[in-house]
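[SOLVED] Need 3D model of a two-part complex

Original post:
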Amino acid sequence: MDNEQAFIQRAQKGDSDAFAALVEEHQRYIYNLALRVLKDEDEALDLTQETFVRAWTALPNFRGQSQFRTWLYRIVTNLCYNRLPNLRRSLIDLGDDVISEIPETHPTFDNPARGFESRELRSYLHNAIENLDENYRLLISLRYQNELAYEEIANMLNLPLGTVKTGLFRAKEQLRRALERYQEASWITP
Amino acid sequence: MDNSLTPEKQNALIEDALHTYPLAPLPRDITFEVMARITTIPAPPTFRLTWNDFILATVLSICIGAMWFSLNNLPPLLIAQIRKESILIYQYVLVNIRWLFPVISFGLAAFLSALTIPYLRQEMRK
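Solution:
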């Protein structure tokens, strides 16, 4: 969005048209995050609306320390905590016992998901992501769909950096196990 | 299908799936609904007195009133005695525990500096 800062400043002064433009711009991302965590379209839509209503009332307190969208993510995450009381606890319980630096490979150099079978495999893995626990889905959505840095996620969720890394590491381990199950199944049924 | 995926290839497949995990399509535009809800929210008043303000103001008024009443109704002899005692205490402090002032000042400064540590840590993490 061009000149988002100007829209925010206008909205802070009570300009509802400027706020409508901000809603239009960010609603898709907020809805996506709510849906990935809650797995219910109606609830996610409801939460998205609630997020923007709360953002409107809290807008005078927005000082621009973080990006506007990150600030909205914080609101929607807090609302998710209210809907899923165990979510916060499950995030804290992840601990931070995993290696401090997680090697992250980027698939761009040689896209492994080519051809019909690979597309099927990608779709299988997307399905596996959807079946992860809600704390992992939240972390994955923030990291990969919204492209936030580990530090930003930690700051946003008020968690230690190590906990965020541990959570993402464990999520990938679960996906690896799902991948192995897929391999075994395709081995049995050629 | 290659059934013997190396850990590197597994990693690459997982990273690919994570990076291509699509954003969910929005079922409908909710801008209108949000704006309709916002218009029903009354604008917050620019200045508002809370119950806490009232209670604090009442307690302070009573204290000041009681002090004023006491000072105006104490016998002159007692007032003179209080003045004498306060002068004696002040002299005692000046003579015997002069070190208390710098200690309290530095202690207070250290305490206030320590209060800024969480904020500074948060800023450094950004």
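Edit: The first helix of chain A runs from residue 4 to 12.
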